[in-house]
Write a structure and sequence with these properties.
By secondary structure, the chain is of the alpha+beta class. Helix content is 33%, strand content 29%.
């Protein structure tokens, strides 16, 4: 006789269980049904509960990561601000030291020195003007002169490199127009710039002299001094000063050096003098405005 297959065995088991449930009292049958339904409910709901709890934990981790990244960004921004503040403090300290050097170098008396920042270059006109962030509300007025840090000049006693007097700061230009919060500086290389200057003998010269002239800029951008007679022994390297007056500067201030000196082709009794400015006019970021004299 052949053994029953698997389906037949399952059918026998189900019939046996059905008979048991039929024969059992109702209270046991109800308990068995309740247990079976609870088991089915647990088996069906647990996987979703686990998945839901896992999802919540992942979201918490993501939220914590976002908070960490936000704090990290704030920390990096604070570091940037701190470095910027340190740079600004160092920048201000350098200019305080420069201002102190000027005060030690010159006897300005009752003159007031005010630092101004070059905010833009005036490109609306052809003249070499620069705009500073000081205006009439700061007391600035036309005619005041602006100083800037000098280029470095090494002293020498050779004929190839004549001795040049070393200065900390020099004239860069003068105020020509003023608004409430800004002013325009007319630089030395502006064709309209013209002031009385004094040429003095350089350090180490045996033939000491002083001679007045007028500084100006020709149409080719060369800074010149005119009206100096050839009987004055001017040589390359001699310093040129802006002449002091009651309404401009309290003392003579360096403006440049004689870079070339030859006879004037239009007038043999006058020198044709070319000037090397003591200030690098193309790289000025800050100036010091000298308040001296009255508006009258």
């Amino acid at each position: 006789m052949a053994e029953p297959n698997i389906k037949t065995r399952i059918l026998y088991i189900m019939l046996f269980l059905s008979a048991i449930f039929v024969l059992l009292p109702d209270k046991y049958t109800n308990k068995a049904n309740f247990a079976l339904s609870s088991l089915v409910e647990i088996a069906s709901s647990k996987p979703y509960t686990i998945a839901s709890e896992t999802s919540d934990q992942i979201e918490d981790i993501i939220d914590q990561d976002d908070e960490y990244n936000d704090l990290l960004r704030k920390y990096e921004n604070l570091l940037i601000e701190l470095n910027n503040t340190k740079s600004e403090m160092a920048y201000q300290q350098r200019h305080i030291e420069e201002l102190a050097n000027i005060r030690n170098e010159f006897s300005f008396g009752r003159a007031t020195l005010v630092r101004a920042h070059i905010s833009a270059e005036d490109t609306s006109i052809s003249r070499k003007n620069k705009i500073v962030n000081r205006g009439s509300r700061d007391g600035v007025r036309p005619g005041l002169f602006a100083l800037a840090t000098c280029e470095t000049y090494e002293e020498s006693n050779t004929s190839e490199n004549p001795t040049a007097t070393v200065w900390k700061s020099a004239v860069a230009g003068k105020i020509i127009s003023v608004s409430l919060t800004s002013s325009a500086i007319q630089m030395l290389n502006d064709p309209a710039f013209s002031e009385t200057v004094i040429i003095k003998s350089g350090r180490g010269r045996q033939d000491s002299f002083e001679s007045e002239g007028v500084i100006y800029c020709d149409g080719k951008g060369n800074i010149k001094v005119k009206h100096v007679e050839t009987n004055c022994p001017v040589k390359p390297g001699d310093p040129i000063f802006l002449k002091a007056s009651e309404k401009t500067m309290p003392i003579d201030i360096i403006i440049g050096y004689v870079s070339n000196c030859d006879y004037n082709p239009d007038n043999a009794v006058l020198w044709n003098i070319t000037v090397q400015p003591a200030v690098n006019l193309s790289d000025i970021k800050d100036v010091i405005i000298v308040f001296h004299g009255s508006e009258e």
